Amino acid sequence: MLNLPDNIERVTYPYLVIGAGLAGLNAALELAANKTVLLVCKEGLLESNTFYAQGGIAVVLSREDTKELHIKDTLNAGAGLCHLDSVRTLVEEGPTRVRELINRGVFFDRDEQGLTLTREGGHSRQRILHAQGDATGREIALCLAEIVFKREDIIVWTQTELLEIVLDAEGQAKGALFYVKEKQKPVLVIAEAVVLATGGAGQLYLNNTNPKVATADGVAAAYRAGAKLMDMEFFQFHPTVFYKQGWPRFLVSEAVRGEGAILVNKQGERFMSGLHPLGELAPRDVVVRGILKELKRSKEQVVYLDTSTMKRKLADRFPKIYNMLRQAGVNPEVEMVPVAPAAHYFMGGILTDSYGETSIPGLFACGETACTGVHGANRLASNSLLEAIVFSYRAANKIKNSLWRSQSGFFVNTHLRKTNVVTTETDLKQKVQFELACSTIRNKKTLQKNILLLQAEIETYTGIPGFYGELLTQHYLNMSMVRRLIAMAALQREESRGAHYRLDFPEVNETLRMNQIVFSSKGEEVWAWNSTGLL
Ligand code: SIN
Question: Which residue among 11, 78, 132, 323 is least packed, with the fewest CB closer than 10 Å?
Fold first, then answer.
């Protein structure tokens, strides 16, 4: 397998962090307190799902709230697959990590009483911190990126694409191979510990809320290196994504409903109230299915957010959304806002323990690319930024306190591979096919068909052995690999649970509660019993 040219450029750093969303920035800052960190990102320091997060960060800070309630809401949304110990860690350590963010200079919105908290779907209390109304992720990313940029002990490489995680002869992570766009060549980075914080995977789908960089690169590279992946069948669709033919999709935050907007059909009739006691503020999967049911009944492509009762509050509290709507030609003060569900957040990913440690020694994962067990079958709104800071902190501190130095000088799994060039039309075709098979409604026949198509695509991409020529299609290969794993897990889970809905198995199968699918490139998929998921 060792297939690297002798003259390949090699650099060594104590720690390597890949990805510059909240998890990557926070891990880099924590690790740099110890030794120098190389922070690598695919585009710029600000291109991440974190940057685009509107709603906020869920955390127990108010006297009306309790940690037990936040745990209960998280487990309820997770539909029987959350890992209770990880959820406890998330909720209990969350307030301290959020105070650290505030101490670093992140400015969350306040009123005379102090920090202002809002509510989102699935939350039984007001517990969502936000910044500049609906630009929470932007405020966090800008603040941390500025600190990172000023630190001499954090070296930043932008425009650098992850190719492979490299292992030594003992199977321990030893670094990673990248394609550095500026140099137009691969570079091997050797490090004592590797943190994957490569973010989300929304670009697997045609309709999504994620930036272009969200192509599941970390999940694919970790899988090729032999790491275990879990919960791949669970991809969360956000219920209210702006939809207008010929206009880019964008999120209309759940907090807009938390502040009073209601979901209606073309006739202005409310349809969520009969479906769940929390109505529009039910967990996301419930609202998505409510919308799909209404779309099927009405034969329309969109439902609407009626914000008329909010009056000026929409513009004042959600300035970013308000301006985007006006740019798209919709005046929400007098018109209803057309919305439909779109792919938003990947619950599945690289299996880690509660210290972000993967099944490969020396390889850590945190943020959306990881599967810590906190989200189960459906993530509770605004728990993701909290997960990113809590688990990146834990991973960094585990690394700082461990001896990860590899004893072996050999890389066993590193080979350069030339991938076929993928055109944007091919990518579009794959997105359409995958969206048909693997979005909110799935069934055996379309899943099987999609798996076969994806297998053929993967073979096409990797069909040319040898050194890299055109490397920039790596993310297309990654997306096909991860799509195939999602489709395979979705086929395996013969029930409907959380974000996973099978038309041919529309009910929850109680015998599958706390049973999770784990994949590894070393072996077949296994069903793992999650003994900590007790509600
Ligand atoms: C939103 O603002 O609705 C998104 C928040 C999230 O995905 O957690």
Answer: 323
